[in-house]
C-alpha cells in the first residue's frame, strides 16, 4: 500500500509595515507584486500542498488571494518590527491545521523579498526534509569572497585595522585551494513541523544545504535593491510565461483617467477651470495599441471637459460621468462583442475594484491604493501620469516604444 503524501505547507510572512521600502511586499517586480511572485512559485512546486500568506495588511491579503494563496490574519502582537518570522510561521501553521482539520508534516518559510526565487528552489528544500531525512534545509549559493570585519577595542569601538573572517589575511590561497563557502540566500527554508514546534527556531538537527543559482540571489531591503530587481526582471522573467499580458491574451484595453493617465492632481484657476498634466509617452503607447487593432476605451467617474478633450486628442472613445463603472464596462463589452476575460483594465483607486473583478487582466499603476495594487494581476513600475500606459503598451506589444 502506498504511503500518503506528506502535508507540506509553505508559509509566506508578509506584514504591511515595511520602513526601508514602504509597502515593500506589494512592490511590483516584472509587473507582479512581490508577494504574488512568491505565491506563484510556491504553487508551481511539485511538493507543496498549500500556500499560506500571513499578513496584517488588506492590500497584501488581496494580492495573496488573487495569486491563489490562503490568507491568515496575523495578530498585532506578532506583526511589529521585533516580531520573528518563526512566530508568524507557527501561528499560520496552527491556523491552517485548525481550519483544514489536518496535520502539517513539513513547513516552509518562504520570503517574498527574494524576487528571483523559483519553484525548483522551493522543491529543493522541501525534498530535503520530506524525502531525504533532513530535519531542516535552506537555500544557499556558492560564495568565494574574502570576508573582512573591522577590529574593535575592548570598549567595542572600531579600530583602524580590519581582520579577515573566513581567511588569514597574511595568506591568500587560490580560489580552488580554499574550502567552499556558502551564502544563505534568505529565500526558502524547510523544517520538520514537529521538530520546529519543539525547537522554536528554523535550524535544528541535521540541516541540508540546497544550492541555488548565485545569479538569482537578491534580497530587497532598500530602494536600491528594488531598483536592481526591476532592472534584472526582464532577464530572469523571460522563462516565466504568463506573468504579464501579451497581445495574444487580450482584445481590449480600458483606461481609467484620473490617477492613471494623470498624477491625480488637479490645478484650478481663479475662474474654477481645471487643468491636469498628462504624459506624451502615454499618447505614444495608446497610438501603438490602436495600430495593433485593440479596442480602446476611456472610462471615468468624473464628467469633465478635460477628460473628453484628452480622449479626442487620443482618438479613443470615452464614457465619463459614470457612477457604476462596472455596469458601463459590462454593457460596453456586450456591445463590442468582447469577452470580459479578454479585457485589460487599468486603474488606481478603490472605485476601480468592481471593474477589476469583471475583467481578465486588472492592472494597477504604481502609486495606486494598496488594496487596488493587491487586487491587480499586474502592477506597473511607473506611476500614473508618468508613462504608466506606455509601459503597459510595451508589455502587450512585446517591445519598447520609441
Automatic annotation (TrEMBL):
E.C. numbers: 2.7.7.43
Upper taxonomic lineage: Bacteria, Bacillati, Actinomycetota, Actinomycetes, Kitasatosporales
Annotated Basic and acidic residues bias: 165-181
Subunit structure: Homotetramer.
A single GO BP: N-acetylneuraminate metabolic process
Catalytic activity entry: an N-acylneuraminate + CTP = a CMP-N-acyl-beta-neuraminate + diphosphate
SUPFAM superfamilies: HAD-like, Nucleotide-diphospho-sugar transferases
Stretches the record annotates as Disordered: 152-181
Keyword field contains Chloroplast: no
Cofactors named for this entry: Mg(2+)
One GO MF term: hydrolase activity, acting on ester bonds
Alphabetized PANTHER family for the sequence: HAD SUPERFAMILY MEMBERS CMAS AND KDSC (PTHR21485), N-ACYLNEURAMINATE CYTIDYLYLTRANSFERASE (PTHR21485:SF3)
Entries under Gene3D superfamilies matching the protein: HAD superfamily/HAD-like, Spore Coat Polysaccharide Biosynthesis Protein SpsA, Chain A
Similarity comment text for this entry: Belongs to the CMP-NeuNAc synthase family.
Protein name: N-acylneuraminate cytidylyltransferase
Keywords noted in UniProt: Hydrolase, Magnesium, Metal-binding, Transferase
UniProt pathway: Amino-sugar metabolism; N-acetylneuraminate metabolism
Amino acid at each position: 500500500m502506498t504511503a500518503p503524501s506528506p502535508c507540506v505547507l509553505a508559509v509566506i510572512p508578509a506584514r504591511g509595515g515595511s520602513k526601508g521600502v514602504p509597502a515593500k511586499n506589494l512592490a511590483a517586480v516584472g509587473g507582479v507584486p512581490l508577494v504574488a511572485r512568491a505565491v506563484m512559485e510556491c504553487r508551481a512546486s511539485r511538493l507543496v500542498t498549500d500556500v499560506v500568506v500571513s499578513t496584517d495588511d488588506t492590500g497584501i491579503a488581496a494580492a495573496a488571494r488573487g495569486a491563489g494563496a490562503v490568507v491568515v490574519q496575523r495578530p498585532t502582537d506578532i506583526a511589529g518590527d521585533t516580531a520573528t518570522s518563526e512566530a508568524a510561521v507557527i501561528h499560520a501553521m496552527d491556523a491552517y491545521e485548525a481550519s483544514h482539520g489536518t496535520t502539517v508534516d513539513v513547513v516552509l518559510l518562504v520570503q517574498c523579498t527574494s524576487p528571483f526565487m523559483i519553484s525548483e528552489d522551493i522543491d529543493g528544500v522541501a525534498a530535503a526534509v520530506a524525502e531525504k531525512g533532513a530535519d531542516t534545509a535552506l537555500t544557499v549559493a556558492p560564495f568565494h569572497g574574502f570576508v573582512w570585519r573591522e577590529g574593535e577595542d575592548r570598549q567595542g569601538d572600531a579600530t583602524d585595522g580590519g581582520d579577515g573572517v573566513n581567511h588569514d589575511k597574511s595568506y591568500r590561497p587560490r580560489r580552488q585551494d580554499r574550502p567552499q563557502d556558502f551564502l544563505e540566500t534568505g529565500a526558502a527554508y524547510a523544517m520538520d513541523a514537529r521538530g520546529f514546534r519543539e525547537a522554536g527556531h528554523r535550524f535544528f538537527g541535521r540541516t541540508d544545504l540546497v544550492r541555488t543559482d548565485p545569479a538569482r540571489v537578491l534580497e530587497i531591503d532598500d530602494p536600491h535593491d528594488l531598483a536592481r530587481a526591476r532592472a534584472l526582471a526582464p532577464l530572469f522573467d523571460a522563462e516565466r510565461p504568463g506573468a504579464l499580458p501579451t497581445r495574444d491574451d487580450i482584445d481590449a484595453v480600458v483606461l481609467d483617467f484620473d490617477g492613471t493617465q494623470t498624477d491625480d492632481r488637479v490645478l484650478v484657476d481663479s475662474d474654477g477651470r481645471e487643468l491636469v498634466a498628462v504624459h506624451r509617452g502615454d499618447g505614444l503607447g495608446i497610438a501603438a495599441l490602436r495600430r495593433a487593432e485593440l479596442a480602446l476605451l476611456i472610462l471615468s467617474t468624473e464628467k469633465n471637459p478635460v477628460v473628453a478633450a484628452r480622449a479626442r486628442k487620443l482618438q479613443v472613445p470615452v464614457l465619463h460621468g459614470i457612477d457604476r463603472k462596472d455596469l458601463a464596462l459590462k454593457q460596453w463589452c456586450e456591445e463590442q462583442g468582447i469577452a470580459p476575460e479578454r479585457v485589460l483594465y487599468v486603474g488606481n483607486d478603490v472605485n476601480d475594484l468592481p471593474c477589476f473583478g469583471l475583467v481578465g487582466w486588472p492592472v494597477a499603476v504604481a502609486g495606486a491604493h494598496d488594496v487596488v495594487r493587491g487586487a491587480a494581476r499586474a502592477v506597473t513600475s511607473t506611476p500614473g501620469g508618468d508613462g504608466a500606459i506606455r509601459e503597459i503598451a510595451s508589455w502587450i506589444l512585446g517591445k519598447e516604444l520609441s
